[in-house]
Amino acid sequence: MEVLCRMREMREEKGISQGKLADLLYVSRQTINAIETGKYNPSLELALQIAHFFDTTVEDIFTLVTDERRF
Q1: Which residues constitute the domain of residue 12?
Q2: Contacts of residue 60, Cβ cutoff 8 Å, sequence gap at least 6
Q3: Residues 61 and 51: beta-carbon distance below 8 Å
Q4: How far apart (Å, rounded) are the C-alpha atoms in residues 21 and 7?
Q5: For the residues 11-16, what does the mean pLDDT come to?
Q6: Which of 19, 32, 41, 67 is least surrounded by CB atoms within 10 angstroms?
Q7: Any coiled-coil ranges, and where (predicted)?
Q8: pLDDT category, 2, cuts 50, 70, 90?
């Protein structure tokens, strides 16, 4: 399964850097970069914090791509 992430798009729409977002969420810039590039899936707590920051739902930011034949 793969997770698609819209965080970079949403961050750029707000005009903030990875470093600024990292500071606001109390994580490293490297963590933000890893989430945006799909190298790291955030914890539930961090995903909720990200959604709160962008005033949206976790599902609007992170989408699970599955093989529909499995369900």
Answers
A1: 2-70
A2: 6, 51, 54
A3: yes
A4: 10
A5: 97
A6: 67
A7: none
A8: confident
Tokens found for residue 5? 């992430």
Mean per-residue pLDDT over the chain, rounded: 93
**Which residue matches tokens 């959604």?**
51
Other beta carbons within 10 angstroms of residue 60's beta carbon come to: 12
Going by pLDDT thresholds of 50, 70 and 90, the confidence category of residue 7 is: very high
CA dihedral 33, 39, 43, 45 (to 10 degrees): 20
- The sign of the torsion formed by the CA atoms of 8, 56, 52, 4 equals negative
Phi, psi of 64 (to 5 degrees): -85, 120
Query: Domain with 59 in it: what CATH number?
Result: 1.10.260.40
